[in-house]
RNA sequence: CGGGACGUAACUCAGCUUGGUAGAGUGCUUGGUUUGGGACCAAGAUGCCGCAGGUUCGAAUCCUGUCGUCCCGACCA
């Protein structure tokens, strides 16, 4: 059956008309968030939170498989503790919220609401790491953090957000470096296998790396409009924090050593990535593995004899295998079709009197709206197959977008031309000088280095900015 | 943090210029008819006009401040 591609929901602004407006429309119409009275703080509604829970469940299992343990740290950091690592505090100070009063009394030392917890983990590690036998320490926590952002948008940048932060300590530099890359791979795999999102991965430049890190690695997916989103980072710290916090252990030859450290995190921003990677003019499109509802069952003419009973029976059959919802509300079928499309439900089943007569139902895919009659006898297998196909279809479409909007610039002129006319990623050489990064950003109205990718051949011998000999291939782009 | 737009019912908005009883559509509630792409009829409920000051006999409307939202910049592991 041919899919009908005409736009059916008028409340959502078309992507091509105004991408930013489209995004906020989808976020609200799909009932993911509501605004609160505090600037930049959002209410994550049940449907949005259920996506986060599915993300958590999947990622948490991956972390545990790799040997990590969950802990919980306090949400307050005394000012003196935050200030122990110089680069770190300089990087975060401008966006930190402070608590200065407790009850009726002014605090003797103000407390920072954690923007990230490196310092707290270090304080704790100092107490529990004494011997090489205590290493490695592979800790992770799921929590909220606060960063006082000036411009906020639901999921993409909010004053408070939910995330996980892993903090690990290792005997050797090699082991810590391996951990950093292992977790980057963990994220990349998660993006591909669970969220159906392809991404460019690589190392951040000095200018863009995390405050206090020696190296920062990043997952950079491309949104539908060609803009990048920093989708997850993994940092190698060397022994810098360990020295600043005086964390030492006795090694195998009875010598005192500083351990080597990593940290890595992904946040609710990933939900923004899902929306802007897979969504369309009819609303959200969810990757099946994190969709709170995978199958929406819509009874047709449900007042007629046996329809509702059959729909219920069907749901009962599917319940253990999929996340299923039967909508037996009084709304018209057409209303329900639009509703679940807006909410991005991957598969819709329609069952009415005609279907029951023929022992079948109608199965509709959200990603391409393809409709097919499916025999009730092998419904489970067919849904499993379609959910897999939706995942694959979403990934391929996103990959085509990423590849189609990635351009190569061999010189300065070409760089400026692409930056001006073609939204997307630019692959171009760089001399390694921060001044060139700054200059390109200023000339292009915000095109920044995304990362130095792991793969990719040099596209020229000279820097696309200054023309001096090039050191690295860099992927550039605007970001959220 | 700069520039712009905007806060009126749950939502989208009209009313403000020219001060004088708070409005519409959608949604919601109840009853009925419907149901294969946002159905129809009837009845009903819903407002500190964002908040705080000021001007005035009288403020949704004029003035000041403040908080929040959106867009564009700047900033932003």
Entry summary:
The chain is α+β, with helices and mostly antiparallel strands and 480 residues long. It has helices at residues 19-29, 46-65, 79-82, 86-92, 118-128, 173-193, 240-245, 269-278, 307-319, 333-342, 353-357, 379-404, 412-421, 434-444; strands spanning 33-35, 42-44, 69-70, 76-78, 97-102, 105-113, 137-146, 160-170, 199-203, 215-221, 232-238, 249-250, 256-257, 260-267, 295-299, 324-326, 347-351, 360-365, 371-375, 406-409, 425-430, 448-453, 472-477.
Report on the biggest sheet. 11 strands, mixed
Helix and strand composition category: alpha+beta
Q: Any low-confidence stretches, pLDDT <50, length ≥5?
A: 1-9
Shape: globular
What would you note in describing this structure?
- It is a single chain.
- With 480 residues, this protein is an alpha+beta fold.
- The chain has 3 domains: 19-278, BirA Bifunctional Protein, domain 2; 295-390, Anticodon-binding domain (Rossmann fold, 3-Layer(aba) Sandwich), CATH 3.40.50; 406-477, 2-Layer Sandwich (Translation Initiation Factor IF3), CATH 3.30.110.30.
- Helix content is 34%, strand content 26%.
- The protein has 14 helices and 23 strands.
- It has helices spanning 19-29, 46-65, 79-82, 86-92, 118-128, 173-193, 240-245, 269-278, 307-319, 333-342, 353-357, 379-404, 412-421, 434-444, and strands at residues 33-35, 42-44, 69-70, 76-78, 97-102, 105-113, 137-146, 160-170, 199-203, 215-221, 232-238, 249-250, 256-257, 260-267, 295-299, 324-326, 347-351, 360-365, 371-375, 406-409, 425-430, 448-453, 472-477.
- It has an 11-stranded mixed β-sheet with strand order 3-7-8-14-11-10-9-22-23-21-20, with helices on both faces.
- The chain is globular, with a radius of gyration of 25 Å.
- Mean pLDDT is 93; it is low at 1-9.
- It binds one RNA strand of 77 nucleotides through residues 4, 8-11, 18, 20-21, 24, 28, 35-39, 88, 91-92, 94-95, 115-116, 147, 149-151, 153, 157, 204, 208-213, 216, 218, 230, 233, 235, 263, 265, 298-304, 330-339, 341, 350, 352, 354-355, 362, 445-446.
């Amino acid at each position: 059956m041919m899919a009908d591609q005409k736009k059916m929901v008028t409340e959502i602004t078309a992507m091509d008309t105004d991408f930013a407006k489209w995004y906020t429309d989808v976020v609200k119409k799909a009932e993911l968030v509501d605004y609160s009275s505090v600037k930049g703080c959002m209410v994550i509604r049940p449907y949005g939170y259920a996506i986060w829970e599915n993300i958590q469940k999947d990622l948490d299992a991956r972390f545990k498989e790799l040997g990590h343990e969950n802990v919980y740290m306090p949400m307050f950091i005394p000012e003196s503790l935050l200030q122990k690592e110089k680069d770190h505090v300089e990087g975060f100070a401008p966006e930190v919220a402070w608590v200065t009063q407790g009850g009726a009394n002014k605090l003797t030392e103000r407390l920072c609401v954690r923007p990230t917890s490196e310092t707290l983990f270090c304080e704790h590690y100092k107490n529990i790491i004494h011997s090489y036998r205590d290493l490695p320490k592979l800790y992770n926590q799921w929590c909220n953090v606060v960063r006082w952002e000036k411009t906020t948008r639901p999921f993409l940048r909010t004053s408070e957000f939910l995330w996980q932060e892993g903090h690990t300590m290792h005997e050797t530099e090699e082991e810590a470096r391996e951990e950093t890359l292992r977790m980057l791979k963990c994220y990349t795999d998660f993006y591909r296998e669970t969220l159906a999102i392809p991404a460019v991965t690589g190392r951040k430049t000095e200018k863009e790396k995390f405050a206090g890190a020696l190296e920062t690695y990043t997952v950079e997916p491309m949104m539908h409009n060609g803009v990048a989103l920093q989708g997850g980072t993994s940092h190698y710290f060397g022994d810098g924090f360990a020295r600043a916090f005086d964390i030492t252990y006795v090694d195998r030859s009875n010598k005192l050593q500083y351990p080597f450290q990593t940290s890595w995190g992904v946040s609710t921003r990933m939900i923004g990535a899902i929306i802007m990677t897979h969504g369309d003019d009819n609303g959200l499109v969810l990757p099946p593995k994190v969709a709170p509802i995978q199958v929406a069952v819509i009874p047709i003419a449900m007042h007629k004899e046996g329809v509702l009973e059959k729909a219920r029976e069907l749901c009962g059959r599917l319940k253990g295998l999929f996340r299923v919802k039967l909508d037996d509300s009084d709304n018209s079928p057409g209303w329900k079709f639009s509703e679940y499309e807006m909410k991005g439900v991957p598969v819709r089943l329609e069952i009415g009197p005609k279907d029951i007569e023929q022992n079948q139902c109608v199965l509709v895919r959200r990603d391409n709206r393809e409709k097919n009659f499916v025999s009730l006898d092998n419904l489970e297998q067919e849904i499993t197959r379609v959910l897999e196909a939706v995942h694959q279809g979403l990934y391929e479409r996103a990959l085509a977008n990423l590849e189609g909007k990635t351009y190569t610039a061999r010189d300065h002129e070409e760089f400026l031309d692409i930056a001006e006319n073609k939204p997307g990623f630019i692959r171009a050489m760089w001399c390694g000088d921060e001044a060139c990064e700054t200059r390109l950003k200023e000339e292009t109205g915000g095109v920044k280095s995304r990362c130095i990718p792991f793969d990719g051949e040099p596209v020229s011998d000279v820097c696309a900015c200054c023309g001096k000999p090039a050191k690295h291939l860099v992927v550039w782009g605007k970001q959220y």
